[in-house]
Structures are given as C-alpha cells and as structure tokens.
Automatic annotation (TrEMBL):
EC number(s) per entry: 1.7.-.-
Gene expressing this chain: azr_1
Domain of life from the UniProt record: Bacteria
The organism of origin for this protein: Symmachiella dynata
UniProt name for this protein: FMN-dependent NADPH-azoreductase
Domain NADPH-dependent FMN reductase-like span(s) in chain numbering: 3-139
Lineage of the species this protein comes from: Bacteria, Pseudomonadati, Planctomycetota, Planctomycetia, Planctomycetales
Pfam families: FMN_red
Length: 182
C-alpha cells in the first residue's frame, strides 16, 4: 500500500493539491493507496507527544505502508517544519521505507531543498529515496489543478518508480529479512 501525506497545515495550499493529485494518479492505476492530510492531525502535532493516540495512528499508517509519498511545502530552501515534526514524532515507523518527495515552492531554484530531507531519511532510517523529486511552482498550477508539464512528468516518474520499488521491497520482505551488516 502507498501512503500519500500532505504536510501543509494551511487550509487551501498547493501542497494539498499536489498530494491529492498524486493520490488520484495512484487510484487511476488501481494501486492500493491512502491519503493523510496533516491538517486533520494539527492538534496532535501541536501537543508534541509521540505517545498521543493520533500520532500513534499516523505511525501505524506509515509503518504499514510499502511506500510513503511526502508532499511538503518548501520555505527558504528547506522543507516545512510540519514535515520535519511529523518525522520526529514517528521515527520508528520510517525504517526501510520507499519514500518519494514532492514539494511546492515559490521558484524552481528550490529543487535542491529536498535533498536534506532525502539524506536524513536515507542515512537515519535506511529509506530508499525515489530519485525523482517533484517541485511544483505557482506556474505549475491552473487554479486547483497541477497542469505544469514538467511537474506532471516528474510526478509520473516518481509514482511509477515508487510503485515498482514498493513491490520489490514487499517481495524481498516476503522471501527473506533484510540482513544487517556487522
């Protein structure tokens, strides 16, 4: 199962549009997918307690997913604090996940802003990072729809690769455990 997470707490955000459209693409392909909007968990994130039942619910959803696709806003060349906070509160759930990252930013120069998050997930939790980042700028949207050809092409590459890698990782888990080096 894929889990798409919208990591923006603003009610009307392009990040939410990006997450919803990613979810819709996976649904069109008949992929098992769930969508989490962190706006629905804002009070739990504010309480800042990893033992909070709502945070535990988020952790369980992340842990159960074969891939996690994070849609995050980019501010000042870094991912939004809500995205970082989610990961801090759900650390145990991220081990060995296939992760794709989508961002919304003011301009295309923010493309590299996602590498810090990717590196953290890769080094800390041994995640497999899908190498197709999506960065959507205001010009990528027409109202409430992602229409930019570059962003749509990247989304297609990201979702296809995440699907393939998630299936491969699930098959590996089914046949043997990941061996740890000494």
């Amino acid at each position: 199962m894929h889990l798409v997470i919208s990591c923006n707490l603003k009610p009307h955000s392009r990040t939410r549009i990006l997450a919803r459209q990613t979810f819709d693409v996976l649904c069109e392909w008949n992929e098992p997918v769930d969508l989490v909007d962190l706006q629905d968990y804002a009070s739990a994130l504010e309480r800042d307690d990893a033992e909070d039942p709502e945070i535990q619910e988020l952790s369980a959803k992340i842990a159960a997913a074969d891939s996690v696709l994070l849609a995050t806003p980019i501010y000042h060349f870094d991912v939004g604090s809500t995205t970082k906070h989610l990961i801090e509160l759900t650390t145990k759930a991220w081990k060995h996940k296939v992760v794709g990252i989508l961002g919304t930013a003011a301009g295309r120069r923010n493309y590299m802003a996602l590498t810090g998050l990717a590196n953290s997930l890769m080094l800390e939790f041994h995640c497999l990072i899908v190498p197709y980042f999506v960065v959507a700028t205001p010009e990528s949207f027409d109202g409430d729809v992602l229409t930019g050809s570059r962003a749509l092409r990247r989304m297609d590459d990201l979702t296809r690769t995440a699907s393939q890698w998630a299936a491969a990782a699930a098959a590996m888990r089914g046949s043997r455990q990941i061996r740890r080096s000494h």
